[in-house]
Design a protein that fits this description.
By secondary structure, the chain is mostly helical. It has 23 helices and 4 strands. Helices cover 71% and strands 3% of the residues.
């Protein structure tokens, strides 16, 4: 009976606490009317000492005292508690004990949600949380630490949190979510609804990552000039160093995007035959619904199923209703399949004229540039690359494609050819400077071009020095040696 009364008292205290506004208060203010304030302060000190030395088992008792007796003492009581039980669960081998720790971990998030308003009232901008943020973290911990994890339960939690957070979803949460969605799909491959869920989850995850990786481009990078006289050969060429802010975004979201892409390829969820079966009858039933047709075109185009019959059917229906960019792209794809390059370019240009979003226009322009490169029309390829960059100056791919054009155009004697590779190297640096996400590709390409620089041994006898400004292909570049 005593335990029941105590539990009721705690519940009532929690409800009252969640309604409080404690802005501007200190921990002493928040403990002023707490009869256990002295013991709470002592317990905070004890659990923090154990926490700092990773002695998590010893931290449990004093931490639980603070968590129970003073739920509004500090916000870090919740974050520290989650870290304590995550570590204990990871190392525990006893199933019953692991389950006990996991239940306590989930209770941390539940109590934090109950007290969210009161906790936020005295939080700093850095420690303020939203309901979605806490649910996301709870979903992540459920997914990775629950002894008997249910993919469907985790998925529902992830979805609720991410729907609230949107583009502000943390990278590690997206990482767990796409893995959860992937495993849910693997367990229900014949379920069309779950297949469509996974496809949409993949697209949404990629969209969030793309938006955030685009933000990384807003931070200026540092260019370190080449030092051809240095004894360190790595300093002979110009280097581009990303800002810490840009690097942090890339470190957080590039692995997520890579993971999402790897899982999606492995899943086979967007197998074109499977997608054609899913959307075939639906396209016919929605042939007068432009919004639906455009969404199908976007999905099929995204998964490179733009050579399937259903894609062309959807494009034709959409084009008849309204000449939208998506429909024009669909018509262009059909003509490409038929080998009519000029006809396809006509529709790509129509899509460019119809589209109002510069980012999408840049994407269409880049597609044509890549097509021109594949066909060996390097001049047109570079022209469309320049158009792409006029629409989206941070498109690193357009610089890298131009670098490929320049290298592919190399002609003349050994020295003359090396100038082309120096110019191509410049374009790799331009790509990194405007698009941090392209740095890895740019570095690989630059290393390949550097292998074709004129040898230092031959340059010495010919009186040629690194660092000279030379002209090639109507542009100037810095002569580099290897």
């Amino acid at each position: 009976m005593k335990k029941i009364l105590f539990a009721c008292a705690l519940t009532f205290a929690s409800v009252v606490a969640s309604a409080q506004n404690l802005s501007g208060t200190t921990i002493n203010d928040r403990l002023a009317n707490n009869p256990d304030s002295a013991e709470v302060l002592q317990s905070i000190s004890l659990y923090r000492d154990a926490f700092k030395t990773n002695n998590f088992a010893e931290a449990i008792e004093p931490w639980e005292f603070v968590f129970t007796k003073a739920p509004l003492a500090q916000i870090r009581v919740y974050t520290d508690g989650a870290w304590i039980f995550e570590n204990l669960i990871s190392k525990e081998t006893d199933a019953a004990k692991k389950k006990e720790y996991f239940d306590k971990l989930m209770n941390i998030y539940d109590q934090r949600l109950k007290n969210l308003d009161a906790l936020n009232s005295f939080a700093t901008p850095k420690t303020t949380s939203t309901k979605g943020n806490i649910i996301c973290r709870k979903a992540y911990d459920y997914y990775y630490y629950c002894p008997q994890m249910d993919n469907n339960v985790a998925y529902k939690m992830f979805k609720e949190g991410i729907d609230d957070m949107g583009p502000n979803t943390e990278g590690f949460v997206l990482f767990g979510f796409i893995e959860c969605s992937y495993n849910r799909f693997l367990q229900n491959k014949d379920n069309i609804d779950i297949r469509q869920d996974f496809i949409q989850d993949y697209m949404n995850t990629n969209d969030i990552c793309d938006r955030l990786l685009d933000q990384a481009k807003e931070y200026p990078s540092e260019t370190i000039p080449a030092d051809p006289d240095s004894e360190d050969s790595t300093k002979w060429v110009e280097q581009v160093v990303l800002s810490p802010e840009a690097q942090k975004i890339i470190d957080n979201y590039q692995p997520v995007q890579n993971k999402a892409n790897d899982l999606f390829v492995a899943s086979g969820a967007a197998d074109c035959d499977a997608l054609e079966k899913i959307y075939g009858a639906q396209v016919e039933a929605n042939k007068d619904n432009l919004q639906y047709l455009n969404s199908v075109l976007a999905i099929l185009n995204n998964f490179e199923c733009d050579k399937s019959n259903i894609y062309y059917v959807a494009a034709d229906y959409a084009y008849q209703i309204n000449k939208t960019p998506q429909a024009a792209i669909g018509k262009a794809s059909k003509l490409l399949k038929d080998g009519d390059i000029n006809g396809a370019i006509k529709y790509f240009d129509e899509a460019l004229s119809l589209e109002s979003d510069n980012a999408k226009k840049a994407k269409y322009s880049y597609i044509v540039a890549a097509l021109m490169y594949k066909k060996g029309n390097l001049g047109q390829c570079r022209a469309y690359c320049r158009k792409t960059l006029s629409l989206n100056p941070s498109n690193g791919g357009a610089y890298l494609l131009q670098a490929s054009c320049i290298a592919r155009s190399a002609s003349g004697d050994h020295l003359e050819r090396s100038k082309y590779y120096c110019l191509a190297y410049d374009y790799c640096n331009k790509a990194k400077a405007v698009d941090p996400a392209s740095a890895a590709r740019a570095n690989r390409a630059a290393a390949g071009y550097a292998a074709h620089f004129y040898p230092k041994s031959e340059a010495f006898f010919a009186g040629i020095k690194a660092g000279q400004v030379v002209s090639v292909a109507g542009e100037t570049t810095t002569l580099r040696l290897r």
